[in-house]
Request: fold
Amino acid sequence: MPLMEPYRIKVVEPIPITTPEDRHRWLAATGYNQFSLRSEQVTIDLLTDSGTGALSAAQQAVAAGADETYAGASSYYRFREVVSDLTGYNYIQPVHQGRAAERILFGSVLRPGMISVSNTHFDTTRANVELLGCVALDLPCEEAADLDSAEPFKGNIDLARLRQVLAGPDRPRIGQVLMTITNNGGGGQPVSMANIEAASRLCREHGVPFFLDAARFAENAWWVTQREPGYADWTPRQVAQRAFALADGCVASLKKDGIVHMGGLVAVNDPELAEQCEMLCIATEGFRTYGGLAGRDLEMLAQGLIEVTDPLYLRARADATRYLGSLAKAAGVSIVEPAGIHAIYLNAKRLLPHLTASQFPGHALACELYLQGGIRCVELGSLYLGTLNERGELQSGPPFELVRLAVPRRVYTQSHLEYVGEVLAQIAKHPERVPGYRMTHVPKLLRHFNCRLERMG
Ligand SMILES: Cc1ncc(COP(=O)(O)O)c(C=O)c1O
Reply:
């Protein structure tokens, strides 16, 4: 079937159409930091797919009937029933978003000095591990290092290294293995069922808890049905259920595949761990039957978690993101291959070879997308991941300079994506004109949110 969204639009919101002069003024005023822009200054917002999706009519309908009772709300029980059917876990705790789930689960599992092992910890995930005085160890598979290869499961964990770590002298310090599906920090690439199965088996053999960071569980399941031998006849829901069954529990930001604006969950099987998580949740998020969410959020989540595994929806989403990737490539901009489902990642290093890592080429490309087209996105390169001194000078950088264009769920149409492709083509005609940047304000923590920069040309 040709590319087509399996829904029509009933409610619309105007998007700001701005001038290049305005955009130059606004971005300069933020210190060239797009996190400080106001939404009315942005035409196409590809900063994140988190909490930015469009609700369905059915989600709005159930929200209207939500139960806002403090304890024991029927909306909680509906949410629990849907999550229980999907994950099979015994204990299900809603929380307000993914990082709260991380703090609660890791706070219950890890002790200072322990190691958390992952295919790749997402940034807040790493922060929550480190805040507990623990070490976050990433073991991405070797294939992930080749941005151009079309390997189908570049989000996998490196099983040989996982085996080594689990059998090595550090075993007593390993508190958990966390598999991020899909691997957001690793180019949005999926993880195969074979990899989840093998990691799960290794963890069982060594007595280490195995959890999923399941923010994009449905999108990962989609790729499994499309790419992994033996799963072509499975539904995405069945694949997701199998993945959950292989783990001892999960954390999830439901702002992604819950298709809501706010929400998350912790779910585990072990009753003692559940009790510990519940205590932390009540102390810091809210009572166990709402966990920081309103009844209407729980209702919309229950509905969203059913809609998100619809194969027609997932196919359209994968097609749209792949289409955006093909537009970027046609414009002469390389992307991390293969295109992800929640985002494409532009290879800024290749497009802007005249800029050194210390001039932040990823950030330069992200700024250019805004200046030329009002498109907001985020750098994943030296600015975000590099080691800088207190003057903002790069000491060591990551191997890649990427720019992530994240696609909100059910929000933008094909012509919006074509507009992004045109702006990319305009930039790619004269990449040598894109200037580098110098950092003028260097925050100690969470640099990318609050730093300020100036243009070097
Ligand atoms: C893989 C992954 N884990 C955790 C989080 C954190 O979730 P939240 O933003 O809801 O706190 C995110 C958010 O983007 C994510 O992509």
User: Anything to note?
Assistant: The chain has two domains: 20-49+310-455, 57-307. The longest helix spans residues 311-330. Residues 25 and 371 are 10 Å apart (CA to CA). The chain is about 40% helix and 15% strand.
